[in-house]
């Protein structure tokens, strides 16, 4: 359904001596098969949106090739556009028009009859909890309602290949869960292929058959969430101990763990197969007279995967709320703060 080879996108910013080249996407290969739900995960500024915009024909690749639904994104862009649904990060419908009219116009752009567009649009309004808002002006809708309206517009013509750019950013937890259900239905009921970008690790984990991780314009991993997690070196064991016993506990943990760290009264480290190692550790600590306040064992998360692969944390990026398209300064600043925080 989606096949990309060596996709590159460079942007030029600044003037004169300040002129710099940003290699936003730096040789991306991608294969998404029919019926797959693939999450494209990465921190702010990693190149997710730029890759997506090349695939949906809004941006011509600087180098490389891609076919989407069997059509070349450069030579057959009209056919690509007809074959897909696309929900951009910023959305489109913010006008003084009625929400329902925007949706119907959008459906008719794709060749639907007015009656079909009204019927399908009203059905999607119900499914995405926009009941009663058909005759509300778009500009008077809340942020979450606008986001759901964007999604109605992306799905109005029943595409079997859907690109969603951070679909749940700005939605409250209930609306997010509802949209997850809807995305799962798209595949289950209609066999749709879904390619979505996200900062949310739990979203990628819950929804996707496969997770593709991008960092600094390059793909650093592509696998199921489970397989990715097995790449991380063991489970995290976190001990909380009584004051004055931190260094003894750290010594004991070091005997079986890697990357042992101390923070306040907590001592943590990575242990292979913690379920087997922890009972002996507890006996050891007891024998050394260490009083334990608590013990926690955490299975690896996708954040750990990202950290293992890149040496940096994804967690800061999770708090991101998206950025306006073409806002280079914002993305560049976020890049800096992400790296700063991870150091
Ligand atoms: N129009 C543009 N002009 C200049 N630089 C750009 C432009 N669009 C994106 N960039 C830069 O390209 C890099 C990748 O941006 P992109 O928006 O693809 O990242 P992203 O992974 O989607 O990030 P986010 O999660 O914040 O949306 C960033 O460094 C960004 O500043």
Q: Just give the CATH class of the domain at 2-84 and 159-229.
A: Alpha Beta
List ligands, each type once. Answer: adenosine-5'-triphosphate
In the CATH hierarchy, the third-tier topology of the domain at 2-84 and 159-229 is known as: Rossmann fold
* Overall SS class: alpha/beta
By DSSP (H or I, 4+ residues per run), the number of helices equals 13
Strand content: 25-35%
Count the beta strands: 14
Question: Using only CA atoms, what is the Rg?
Answer: 24 Å
Q: Biggest sheet: strands side by side, in what order?
A: 6-7-8-3-9-10
Low-confidence segments, given as residue ranges, are 317-343
By oligomeric state, this entry counts as single chain
* Main sheet summary: 6 strands, mixed
Helix content estimate: 25-40%
Mean pLDDT: 84
Order of H and E elements? EEEHEEHEHHHEHEHEEHEHEEHEHHH
CATH homolog superfamily of the domain at 2-84 and 159-229: P-loop containing nucleotide triphosphate hydrolases
**Mass-distribution shape:** elongated
The CATH architecture of the domain at 2-84 and 159-229 would be 3-Layer(aba) Sandwich
Q: Note the gap between the termini.
A: 39 Å
